Structures are given as structure tokens and as C-alpha cells.
Amino acid sequence: MKVSEEKYVIVGFGWVGQANAIALTQLGYDVSYFDPGNPSHHYAEFSDLYKKIEPLSSLKQNDARNTCYMVCVGDKVSEEGEQDISNIKTVLASLRGAKGGVMLRSTILPGLLEELNYDWYVPEFLHEKKAVEECLDPFFFVIGKKDGARPEPSVCALWQKRAGKTFSGTAREASLIKYLSNLWNSTRIAFVNEFGDAIGRPTDKKRLVEIERVIDFLFDHRMYMRYGRAFSGHCLPKDTRAFRSWYEKNGTKFPLIAGVYESNSRHAQLEKELPLLPEWYSEWPDRHISGWRALSELLYAIRKNVAHPLLAWKRMTGGRK
Ligand SMILES: NC(=O)c1ccc[n+]([C@@H]2O[C@H](COP(=O)([O-])OP(=O)(O)OC[C@H]3O[C@@H](n4cnc5c(N)ncnc54)[C@H](O)[C@@H]3O)[C@@H](O)[C@H]2O)c1
């Protein structure tokens, strides 16, 4: 199907919905949205593109065989880790019998996905500060298809081409990858912060610099691995709680994941006394490398793939010709 023949309806116009809507509009698609919550605009710098995205007064107003519903409605997670997807369920129930296909983008535990009705599960990996850019060129494109799902909309092929890494499998696998990514990010942040807290309190700039020098030497200022504020925001705390609680229901303990949440909460308390702690924002690394870094990566690859086999051959043959 041609780009111009498809219609994308974004359901849930929050952080994720708006970033997807703007990116799709920029890619030349016909985009509208449905959200009864009257949400405010999160990405002011794209005010021109917002004007092209039509608000709908009813969910199936633009329903047709060439419509793709992109469901970006939020989940909620209680302090105990219970995931509430009732808003998502309501939308999916209303879309039953729709002529268009349904792409689910919300973060949903694998066990809860089974009972839902949609065509493709494509979890979102964006960071809020670079959300639109990361919707145009996703770092990961992960798709889980339901049995009997209809052919994917054309944006999937486009994303597949533009993505840093792609995965195609079941919805369960796609959800597990999403949670693995978030849990790994929260684990790294909590670990680095706990290590920093253990070696000293950044009560003045000098102490903070010492902690940072130690940590940054080993981790090269990499994102999620810099000493600073606790993780917070829309996703990491709720997803860490939800995953732990779901998998602990059958009696298995996850001390590391449980510890991550506890450690982060303690660090967040400490933060109130330590105003010097910096706040770091994350984004996926730039995939296009150039200059000196590109050259050093090339030299490394040559050493690894060309020089090493020669050495291995020499070792095996004892240097015989
Ligand atoms: N924010 C992020 O950076 C991020 C990143 C990756 C994944 N996610 C996941 O994406 C999902 C959405 O996150 P978000 O940050 O955009 O949430 P959000 O709260 O900003 O937006 C959700 C929107 O859904 C709307 N909504 C609720 N019920 C609805 C209904 N019945 N019909 C239509 N719209 C409805 C709300 O009014 C709200 O505007 C969550 O599952 C989240 O975990 C978020």
C-alpha cells in the first residue's frame, strides 16, 4: 500500500502518541488522533506539524481497511506492582470488528498480552527528550505478531530499514525485550548511584568530582552509568515494580531486581539532602560515527578479524608454513 493511501489513527495522545504522530506526519502519512483527555502538547518545537494532525471526536471516525490504529494509551502500576491496563482494554474492546489493523505500543507485561486483541505488538523504546527523533529513526524496532495478523502497515518496513537493531517474533518475546531493556537501564542507574553513595556523600563540589572521576573513568560517561539523581519519570519505576511483582507471584524471588527498586528509593531520599546531584537525560547513542572514533573502530575491527585469525593460525601450526 502506498504511503498516501494509509491512514494512521493514534489512540492516546500523550508522550508516546504525540511523538509517533509527529514522526509519522513528518514521514508523509495521513495522521489523526483520538484522546478523550484533551492532552496538552509535549513537543512545542513541532507546532507546525501538530496543525496537520486532526483530532477525532470518535474512535472509529476514520475506520477503513487502510487504517492503522496505533494504541499508545498508558498503563498504571500500583506501589505493590499490580499493572492496571483497563484503559488499554477498553480501547481494544471498542476496536473489535474495526476494518483497520491494530498496532499496540503501550508497555504491557507478557502475561497480560495474551488476553488482548490486536494485530501487532510494537513496544516503544523512546526517551522523552529525543522522542520524535527516536520515532523517526528508532534505535530498536521490535515487532511481535499475533497468529493470523494482517499484513503490517508500510511504516513497519520503513522503521525496519531506519532502525539500529530489529527483532521480529512473538508478542511475548517483544514484551520481554521491552522489560529487559528497562530493567537493565534501572539496574545500571541504581548500581552506579549505590556505588557513589557508598564511597562518599557529595556534600560539596570537590567530593562530587572525586566520585565522578572514579565512576566516569570506568564507564566513560555512558548513559545510565553516571552518578546523579535517582531514576524517576514515566517508565523505569513502574516497569521495574510491575515485572518484579508479576514474576514473584509464583513464589520465585528476584533479589537483584527487588534490590534495584529499593536502592533507587533510598537514593531518592538521599537526593533531598544532596542538591548537588546532577540529573542526566538519556537518549540512544548516535549510530552514525565519524572522524577519529570511526577510524579507531575500523582499526579495532581489522585487528580483531584479520590479525587475530593469523595469530591463531600461527599458534595452531607452530608457525609452520
Ligand atoms: N513516556 C515514555 O517515555 C515512554 C517510553 C516508552 C514506552 N512508554 C509506554 O507507552 C505507554 C504510554 O505512555 P505515555 O507516557 O505516552 O502516557 P501518557 O499518560 O502521557 O499518555 C496516555 C494518553 O492516553 C490517553 N487515554 C487514556 N484512556 C484513553 C482512551 N480510552 N482512549 C484514548 N486515549 C486514552 C490519556 O488521556 C493520555 O493522554 C505506557 O504504557 C508507557 O509505559 C512510555
From TrEMBL:
What is the scientific name of the source organism?
Candidatus Kaiserbacteria bacterium RIFCSPHIGHO2_02_FULL_49_16
According to the entry, every stretch annotated as the UDP-glucose/GDP-mannose dehydrogenase dimerisation domain falls at 172-265
Q: What is this protein called?
A: UDP-glucose/GDP-mannose dehydrogenase dimerisation domain-containing protein
Single GO term (MF): oxidoreductase activity, acting on the CH-OH group of donors, NAD or NADP as acceptor
> Which is an annotated Pfam family here?
UDPG_MGDP_dh
